[in-house]
Design brief:
There is one protein chain. A hairpin with a 2-residue loop joins strand 9 and strand 10. The longest helix has 18 residues. The chain folds into 2 domains: 166 residues, Rossmann fold, CATH 3.40.50.300; 55 residues, no CATH class. By secondary structure, the protein is α/β, with parallel strands linked by helices. The chain has 9 helices and 10 strands. The chain has a 6-stranded mixed sheet, with helices on both faces. A 4-stranded antiparallel sheet has the order 2-1-4-5, with helices on one face.
């Protein structure tokens, strides 16, 4: 029996009396770029936190190639091939750019005797090779975003979760980072899940969208269908709705 790469089944999460995620069901096939769309507070980052073991689910299952990740620690989930970035860049302060990537290379999936050369190759891929020996806290915000991706790639993931990778970036930086994500998907055969509020770029990047509002999946489909979905449009009304701008992107 074959399985999807990732299966999320009936996932539920409460924080006290707040029901943050409600019976979430998502399937991600190998090789997809799946976007998770929703207004602020919809539960998107909480979903990523559950998938990667940073917080436990109350109910439901997360399966990677049919193997349950429920109750697993985040470092064990990374060891199975799931890596992520964060909304807020979190470099290891006091370490250089190269040393940050070397930390990610210490996991069980990395099968090389020369992690230094491998880390430099990853930095070259993301455009940071020239800053390998720079203290990570001295990087610009755009470079920190690239470092986050390089550090995640260092763990040798099959599934890469990107949480708002374009946040805080200008249009030229977003264009360059979009192309990097496409290249990683194309050349390294990465499966990617993406949260992003820059909807024009988001819709151009993903092949399928899962829309969430108030912790529930309200729509799922290709970008052209999602931008015209009445429930998705309603979710953005009064919240600086940018959806109509994406239809002619």
């Amino acid at each position: 029996m074959t399985h999807a790469l990732l299966e999320v089944k009936h996932l539920d999460k409460h924080f006290g009396g707040l029901h943050v995620l409600k019976d979430i069901n998502i399937t991600v096939q190998e090789g997809e770029i799946v976007g998770v769309l929703g207004p602020n507070g919809a539960g998107k980052t909480t979903l990523f936190n559950l998938l990667t073991g940073f917080i436990p689910a109350d109910e439901g299952q997360v399966l990677l190639r049919g193997k349950s990740l429920r109750e697993m620690r985040s470092n064990d989930i990374v060891g199975l091939g799931v890596a992520r970035t964060f909304q807020l860049c979190r470099p290891f302060v006091g370490l250089t750019v190269l040393e940050n990537v070397l930390v990610g290379s210490l996991g069980p999936r990395v099968k090389t005797d020369d992690i230094g050369a491998r880390a430099m190759h990853l930095l070259d891929q993301v455009g940071l090779a020239g800053k390998a020996h720079t203290a990570s806290e001295l990087l610009s915000y755009g470079d920190l975003r690239r470092l986050e991706i390089a550090r995640a790639l260092a763990t040798d993931p099959e599934l890469l979760l990107l949480d708002e990778p374009f946040a805080g970036l200008g249009s030229s930086e977003i264009e360059a980072l979009s192309e990097l994500i496409r290249k990683l998907h194309r050349e390294q055969k990465l499966t990617i899940m993406l949260i992003e509020h820059k909807l024009r770029e988001f819709m151009q990047l993903v092949s399928r969208v899962v829309a969430i509002d108030f912790g529930e999946v309200i729509a799922e489909g290709v970008p052209a269908d999602i931008v015209n979905n009445p429930r998705v449009i309603e979710a953005y009304i009064g919240r600086q709705n940018p959806l109509e701008q994406t239809q002619h992107a």
